[in-house]
Write a structure and sequence with these properties.
With 276 residues, the chain is of the alpha+beta class. The protein has three domains: 47 residues, Uridine Diphospho-n-acetylenolpyruvylglucosamine Reductase, domain 2; 116 residues, Uridine Diphospho-n-acetylenolpyruvylglucosamine Reductase, domain 3 (2-Layer Sandwich), CATH 3.30.465; 94 residues, CO dehydrogenase flavoprotein, C-terminal domain (Enolase-like, domain 1, 2-Layer Sandwich), CATH 3.30.390. Helix content is 34%, strand content 25%. It is built from eleven helices and 14 strands. A hairpin with a 5-residue loop joins strand 12 and strand 13. Helix 10 runs antiparallel to helix 11. The radius of gyration is 19 Å and the shape is globular.
């Protein structure tokens, strides 16, 4: 299929984008990498009246340190962040998770913020945002606000972004996972959307923060104290049942829970071994 007719605007500034969003509201969609949006438009799951291309707005293409946060602008591609020289030092968990995002060809076009905006519960970057307790920066003609991951992603492919808002950046706390970080996922093939993705980081207090994507309608996290193996397994079992899971053409809820129960202890062990 092909998309319905739409108007195309290549914006030169954030102010221009915000004015267009204020004018068109739900009828407008923002194009950065287009890896998810264009497919949805071709299937007519999304039918914008106006497509706003932000790919050439220079101020949205920065990776920088802001206070104690790593800030990634709205047009920064996944490949650029993956190749950023300081990534392992600043955000070791993302350095481990981002190579699992699609293929290197799609990472050259797909953006970090675009993946988070799409809010697929199986995606690696929304899981990273939740696990690291990052935040999303939203701007409109009314002003700016920052939402934590649980506030931003409200359900499957659903976020708290208002129709007149755009994501200008996402922020990740610096140093989370320096004492240990690990990521694994199960998919039909490498590069496919994950059936289940699991990440773990060792916090500064020695506790383990575990995150899972693909089992619930959004990424979920839990903090686990350092414990013996049997107690840890019991906590993971309870966590899996609390999430419930869902059935789709790729896997049953039961299978998703089983992956979590079996894979999470391995991921936690990898994170602890990174801690030395």
């Amino acid at each position: 299929m092909k998309p319905r007719p739409f108007d195309y605007v290549r914006a030169d500034s954030v102010a221009e984008v915000l004015e267009l969003l204020a004018r068109h509201g739900e009828g407008a969609r923002i194009l950065a990498g287009g890896q998810s949006l264009m497919a949805m438009m071709n299937l007519r799951l999304v039918q914008p009246e106006v497509l706003i291309d932000i790919s050439r707005i220079a101020e949205l293409g920065e990776i920088r340190i802001v206070g104690d946060m790593l800030e990634v602008g709205a047009t920064v591609t996944q490949a650029r962040l993956e190749a950023w020289p300081k990534l392992e030092e600043v955000a070791p968990f993302i350095a481990r998770a981002i190579p699992w995002v699609g293929h290197f060809q799609t990472r050259n076009r797909g953006t970090v913020c675009g993946s988070i905006a799409h809010a697929d519960p199986s995606s690696e970057l929304p899981l990273s945002l939740a696990l690291l307790e990052g935040e999303v920066v939203l701007r409109s003609c009314r002003g700016e606000r920052c939402l934590k991951a649980p506030e931003f992603q409200t359900g499957m492919l659903t976020t708290a972004r208002e129709a007149d808002e755009m994501i200008t950046a996402v922020r990740f706390p610096i140093g989370v996972g320096r004492k240990g970080a690990a990521f694994r996922e199960v998919a039909r093939r490498h590069g496919d959307f994950a059936i289940v993705g699991i990440g773990a980081v060792v916090a500064g207090d020695g506790n383990i923060r575990l995150g899972v994507g693909g089992v619930s309608d959004r990424p979920r996290t839990i903090t686990l104290p350092r414990a013996d193996e049997s107690d840890l397994q019991d906590r993971i079992e309870r966590f899996a049942w609390e999430l419930g899971g869902y059935d789709d053409i790729h896997a049953s809820a039961r299978y998703r829970r089983d992956i979590l129960r079996r894979l999470a202890p391995r991921v936690i062990q990898e994170a602890l071994q990174c801690n030395g």
